[in-house]
Amino acid sequence: MNYQSILDSIQKEISSFKNTGKVATYIPELGKVDAHKFGLHLQCVTGEHFALGDAEERFSIQSISKVISLSYALKLAGNSIWQRVDVEPSGDPFNSLVQLEYEKGIPRNPFINAGALVITDILMGHLKKPKEDFLHYVRDIANDQTITYDESVAASEMKHKFRNASLANLMKDFGNLQHNVDDVLDFYFHQCAIAMSCKQLSEAFTIFLNYPKGDHSKQARTLEPILAKRINALMLTCGFYDESGEFAFRVGLPGKSGVGGGIVALHPKQYCIAVWSPPLNAKGNSELGMKVLELFTSRTGISVF
Ligand code: GLN
Q: Binding of substrate: at which residues (predicted)?
């Protein structure tokens, strides 16, 4: 497959793309990002990799971190986590409160904010120094010790914490948060504030590729196949909130978005691809990012379907 020529043809096509998206401003620090940034990185199991644009520029990974936290919680706490968070698509926005009330504080899945807050609380029960330990885990899976938190983004979100604080307080009332609400929020906002490039993200997400032993030098860092299977299933069904069906329909890959404008998607046993374009559509997903991934699976003919 000549990936480079396919990527070049995509870049040409999107040069005339009319982006109607808007950069997220509800976390004021995110609103400072240049809306015209665009990066893409494709990492194949063969070790080949390809890039477009600002592929090595770091941005706020935001909810993409929810996949990393889930993988860490599953490693540390195993299947016990499913007593506190469900595995069903929510069909609601990422920060919605409505289902929590009638589902008695059990979030519908780990990729909406409520679910990620529970996963954060679980991690805190297993880690001595949660923020430090989490950062080490991310650096380890990405094989890059330079990755770090963007403290100004974390502080900016803490200042505007009110909706996430509502979710956390409601779950605390239902008995589904063990730690202090502000400590949970602080750790969660830090996870979201990790800054990574498309190149680093596409490397980190190779842990979900489930490729056979010996195919890749990164085998030591891959997850157990059963965990990769479950996390990929959740990415496919819940990775884009109330637009998860649309993403599966148009792109046909498990993936996860963040309000920083990043999207990571992957084809088990084949490749990881990360794109970044800050303007978001009405559902909070990168408008151009979705378009590019749709073009990629259409032109390569490789999706999971
Ligand atoms: N930190 C953001 C929030 O909690 C993450 C949301 C997202 O990326 N969808 O609102």
A: 63, 113, 157, 164, 188, 241, 259
